[in-house]
Amino acid sequence: MKIQQKLKMEEYDDVNVLTADFQLLFNNAKAYYKPDSPEYKAACKLWELYLRTKNEFVQKGDAEEEDEDEEGHDSQELSSPGYLKEILEQLLEAVAVATNPSGRLISELFQKLPSKVQYPDYYAIIKEPIDLKTIAQRIQNGTYKSIHAMAKDIDLLAKNAKTYNEPGSQVFKDANAIKKIFNMKKAEIEHSELAKSSLRLRTPSNLTASKLTGPSSQGKGSVGDERNSSNKYYRNKRSAQGDRLSAITMALQYGSESDEDAALAAAARYEGESEAESITSFMDTSNPLYQLYDTVRSCRNNQGQLISEPFFQLPSKKKYPDYYQQIKTPISLQQIRAKLKNHEYETLDQLEADLNLMFENAKRYNVPNSAIYKRVLKMQQVMQAKKKELARRDDIEDGDSMISSATSDTGSSKRKSKKNMRKQRMKILYNAVLEARESGTGRRLCDLFMVKPSKKDYPDYYKIILEPMDLKMIEHNIRNDKYVGEEAMIDDMKLMFRNARHYNEEGSQVYNDAHMLEKILKEKRKELGPLPEDDDVASPKLKLSRKSGISPKKSKYMTPMQQKLNEVYEAVKNYTDKRGRRLSAIFLRLPSRSELPDYYITIKKPVDMEKIRSHMMANKYQDIDSMVEDFVMMFNNACTYNEPESLIYKDALVLHKVLLETRREIEGDEDSHVPNVTLLIQELIHNLFVSVMSHQDDEGRCYSDSLAEIPAVDPNFPNKPPLTFDIIRKNVENNRYRRLDLFQENMFEVLERARRMNRTDSEIYEDAVELQQFFIKIRDELCKNGEILLSPALSYTTKHLHNDVEKEKKEKLPKEIEEDKLKREEEKREAEKSEDSSGSAGLSSLHRTYSQDCSFKNSMYHVGDYVYVEPAEANLQPHIVCIERLWEDSAGEKWLYGCWFYRPNETFHLATRKFLEKEVFKSDYYNKVPVSKILGKCVVMFVKEYFKLCPENFRDEDVYVCESRYSAKTKSFKKIKLWTMPVSSVRFVPRDVPLPVVRVASVFANTDKAEEEKHSETLDDSKVGESILHLEKDKEDVPVEMSNGEPGCHYFEQLCYNDMWLKVGDCVFIKSHGLVRPRVGRIEKMWVRDGAAYFFGPIFIHPEETEHEPTKMFYKKEVFLSNLEETCPMTCILGKCAVLSFKDFLCCRPTEISENDVFLCESRYNESDKQMKKFKGLKRFSLSAKVVDDEIYYFRKPIVPQKEPSPLLEKKIQQLEAKFAELEGGDEDMEEMGEEEGDITETPSIPQLQTPLSSELDIMPYTPPQSTPKSVKGSTKKEGSKRKINMSGYILFSSEMRAVIKAQHPDYSFGELSRLVGTEWRNLEATKKAEYEGVIGQNVSPMVGTPAPGASPFGQQIGILGPPGQQAPPPYPGQSPVTQPVMQQPSTPMFVSPPPKTQRLLHSEAYLKYIEGLSAESNSISKWDQTLAARRRDVHLSKEQESRLPSHWLKSKGAHTTMADALWRLRDLMLRDTLNIRQAYNIENV
To answer: Which DSSP state fits 1058?
Structure first.
């Protein structure tokens, strides 16, 4: 399969390379299978078949090629220079203008060399760079003497491209195509010159060449005729296309003006040309789906760089595993391209949905200010603009085709069938509706009828309208012949107009447009005349059912972010209280400047819900937080302008709470996104420990195995606690390490002990150094050199390690050399003594006869042979000995002297150590043995030869491998670097198949397993309590000198108090009395005086300790740096915490502090002016080197903290609800009393009072203070329809205090005065408040339905006061006349209810002026007699006066020209009703 793939990719340039691959394939098969297997025989046969086939083709091909080359060279050599130049230019033209089936120029990237700036490595890889520009110059200069010379340069061009680019890339394919095109054109020219036959057949390759290069020359006749005709052809072609050829050559010769532009274009082609080509191969480029995809994929920035490159493929799961945890539906351009190829997209909306999903995934995973996030925003804008362009183009094409087909009906109607005539009539009628415009403005009347209303924006539409219809659906039915007749289409049109009139109010724009369009449709149908043949009209029973599954065009797709934004908006907009009142009504639109001019002076950034919705529809919100910020600003504005006791204030707080709860439901708890630093540190330490302990050499031996036998206590430091790798492993498993530097100290302590206690040339020493180097390497990789974890441990590098090792070796080497010298002398003496003691008393070495070999029991033994020697005990395995000397003593007995080799079970080693199969170890034990104890021969081979060679005539069980030497004295192993054993007489031959390297467990592994488990259980039981505690790094008290310190005080930078280590700059919890949470303090100084410890520093306070608006939001765990600095005893410290600046809080954490104890601080709270001001950052401290710094873990991606509501919000809402419930309770009682009285007595009928006000004026519901009607017929319940003016002591207090404050601060605005009044009321004592409530209680009766003596609420509301002794009329309407006390003119100003207004403030400026206008001297508030005599024609108002008119009393001006006319009409109606009441109740003297 691999060879086939290489053939497809055209990677074989030579037959020899192909032959080598086949040979390797068959040799591998023969090496793996046995010689007698069928696979082995098949490999042999296939190889022979391949060689025969190769010889047949190659020899034949070589002969033909030689002949052609000779003839070709001859013909080229004989050609004239001018004629040769023509041929070369034709060859160059064939390459330069060749295109692929989609029209792409193949040679574009080969015309100029890549830029050295953009591709510097190209010139390091390619030694002979060349391009088509260079080839064109050489043609012009006459450098080429033959076609063969140019062919070499073309081959070099293709070879360079294939060397630099990967196989399968588009450039790789283009290089092969250029080479193939050149060879085909070259063969075409040569065959036309040298053809033997009169007619040449065209092969498929010729056809391809003709497609790529254009028409080729063909002729008939003899060779001479062929040559002459071809010469004529080339000359004619040169003369006819001389300009074009010269242009191509010159273009290639001089190239473009900018090398960098060409490099950029080349880079763009390199990045994904193959993908674009593959798409165009299966999809038409005019397809809107392809155009939208290609627009996104080809999106570039201002510098021309491709910005869609990161979206070509999904991120690597190995590099970005958390991406697939956060992103549940990953998608890339590659997957979208595959869907396009499989035709899975039917509409642009579906493709846009997938592209938006890809963009939202990127925006969710990446930080808003990152480069990829900005690319997403740019690509989304480009995509939306392209989508609109394609949709507009489609509409224009559809409209044009429909109009043209409709207008062409006049000339050809007689020749068309009846069916087409009916369809043409329907198109004409449809276009008449489509093109209808409003006279004067030119507005299209059908715009609102094109598509049905959105279900999300108008959910009630589909409850009211059971059969929705729009023009898009009608157009679809016309195009697809869904209508059996014209009447069916007319019925759908009428249904659409009827729906519009039914849903919209009479007089609205949509209502009028529907009426006008229906009229136009009737007139156009009347103009066309009757149907041509009524008999052909289908029965009404055959009309198209409107529920037959004909679906209109889908509404615009909403991205997941848009859906979330819409969900938040709708939650705030649709929230209602327990009475069903929609709280958001007052926030939908801002008040007009004429109504509340001071609002825009107080509020600097006004915003309403309509503005928020417009921003949402315009995709200006990139996340939910940006929308929440606007909502919060709106609620803050409401609380700033309105009084704390007002209803709007309370509504703003409630909606603010709803907003935050909705956001929390959608996005979830933000804490889940904060990485658990403690677990991450423990995971990092665990991975580091496992990596070090698993580190192996090339043969698979773990370096840590040799260190397992190190004693737990160093004899030089007996007081230190025991520490081994096993103890460290237990600590790691129990998660007792919270600091990397402490873990590193423990690991290095074990490794340094191993170095101290062993020789520098021992295996243990070398393994310890290797493990330390590997530890530092893996540590730096895991910490990314401080980018992830910043720790003091990183200060120790490999450079420090090498210095320490070199220093240690210099100290130990002289001692080791001296030890080796003494050891050799001792061994020499022991050997001489052993030899002398074993001989006879007077026998010397001269009586021995040494030889290189000897025979025993028909076997010959040589020096260097390995033999089995009889064991000392019967139950042991035979010893393995290498013969180093052979001799025969005077008694005729033969002896051998040699080195013993130990098996693994004959050594002391760790049970976890692994060994090679058949491994033995060279020992330091030498001795002599009688030859008679030899049991047989064996072979011990060095590890470097064992796996490749095998001894002849030896069984496998008698062949051993040796890799290390073993010291019985030190019980240690050390690898053998040089094999110095005597040369053996055994002959070795190569193995057919090299042996695999296999390591097996020790024989002690199983026997020690139970003991190890038992030991671990005992260890666990003894450290149950200890495993919970974290290990602490050794620290010391660090004193510091203070120049301005107090006498008797000892200052410290680092101090241990109550088993808690503290340093300057640490933050701690402080005991606080009366607060819910303990305060936070920062240690800036600490000292000890008379045995007691103290610290000094600033105090951080929590949000509930500050004064702020309830709508203000805070970050979770946010604190504020106060102006308060205190000196506290350390006895009040409850524990440690951390306070980070905003920047640090987003990206890092200290490793030893729990996440619950980490706080954020970005502002300072000034207690004097109650203001919060942001600062640049917290103070940093520079401490001495003895102080142990904190370890800091940096997040891979900054977190995005969410803000939470103020702790005062819920409390304030509860207070206001309780207040309003108390006030509303009395009103409800009066309502019930009024209703009961109304049931007893009927109101006299007054027919003339039934004035159809709603038809003439849209007047806000007027609600008398005595009762509130349950509903008003013909009007929708609006916000404020049940509002009552609730009298309270606060209103009386406000009227008095406002005048006082305004006198003191005349330049203050209304909003500022309101805030000061509210603050004074809150600070007022409870007794004073009760006094105001008591005063208001005496005068409140006229407001709640029981008129006080001398006052008629009804009379005062309509501006009429009856004379003394006149009985007051009952409240109108709904109450019967009852005996009332005689009305008396009040001696003091009274509270009079003004005309109601939706969401009126409890004490606006107008209301206060109204109150101030009451006096004892006047029996009326206004000059009513002048008002009665006023007429519209006599009064001329200026623009300023018109702006002050109470236009807010009316919702709209109705049918009147101006708002002033509407108010005059309202005044007339009120006067008429007043006179009617007078006549009905016989009221006189008015």
So the answer is: T
pLDDT in tens, 128-138: 899 998 998 88
State the first-to-last Cα distance of the chain, in angstroms, to the nearest integer.
113
Contact 608, 573 (CB under 8 A): no
- Mean pLDDT in residue range 754-763: 86
Parallel, antiparallel, or unpaired for β 1158-1160 and 1133-1140? parallel
Spatial separation of the C-alpha atoms in residues 573 and 559, rounded to whole Å: 21
Q: What is the pLDDT of residues 2-56, one digit of tens each?
A: 787 677 666 776 777 888 888 888 888 888 888 888 888 888 888 888 888 877 7
Separation between Cα atoms, residue 444 and residue 30, nearest integer Å: 84
CB neighbour list of residue 689: distance below 8 Å, 6 or more residues apart: 728, 729, 732, 743, 747
* DSSP assigned state of 1383: P
Tokens in use for 222?
Answer: 């003899």
| CA 389 to the chain's CA centroid | 29
d(CA 1362, CA 1351): 9
Which pLDDT score, from 0 to 100, does residue 480 have? Answer: 83
Cα separation, 1021 vs 1028, in Å, equals 13
| Tokens standing for residue 341 | 């190829």
Please tell me the distance from the alpha carbon of residue 579 to that of residue 1024, in angstroms, as a whole number. 61
Q: What is the per-residue pLDDT for 798? A: 92
**DSSP string covering 156-183:** HHHHHHHHHSPTTSHHHHHHHHHHHHHH
| Whole-angstrom distance, CA of residue 652 vs CA of residue 644 | 11
Nearest by Cα to 328 from 360, 302, 291, 300 = 360
- Tell whether omega for the bond before 994 is within 30 degrees of 0, i.e. cis: no
> How do residues 1337-1363 score in pLDDT, each as one tens digit?
554 433 333 333 333 333 333 333 333
What are the φ and ψ backbone dihedral angles of 70, each rounded to 5 degrees?
Answer: -65, -50
pLDDT band at 804, cuts 50/70/90?
very high
Distance CA 943, CA 921 (A): 11
Q: How far apart are CA 261 and CA 246, in angstroms?
A: 24
Tens of pLDDT along 301-342?
Answer: 876 678 888 888 888 887 788 888 888 889 999 889 888 888
| Residue 285 structure tokens | 């480029």
Are 1391 and 1411 in contact by the 8 Å Cβ rule? The answer is yes
Name residue, tokens 């793996």: 32
pTM score, two decimals? 0.44
* Contacting residues for 181 by C-beta, under 8 A, at least 6 apart: 94, 95, 98, 106, 209, 212, 213
The pLDDT mean for the chain works out to 75
- Alpha-carbon distance of 1380 to 1346, in angstroms, equals 9
Residue that the structure tokens 């509210």 belong to: 1318
Query: 393: which 2 tokens?
Result: 């183009």
**Of residues 142 and 1392, which shows the higher confidence score?**
142
pLDDT of residue 557: 57
CA distance 873 to 1120: 84
Q: Among 809, 731, 827, 717, which residue's Cα sits nearest to residue 768?
A: 809
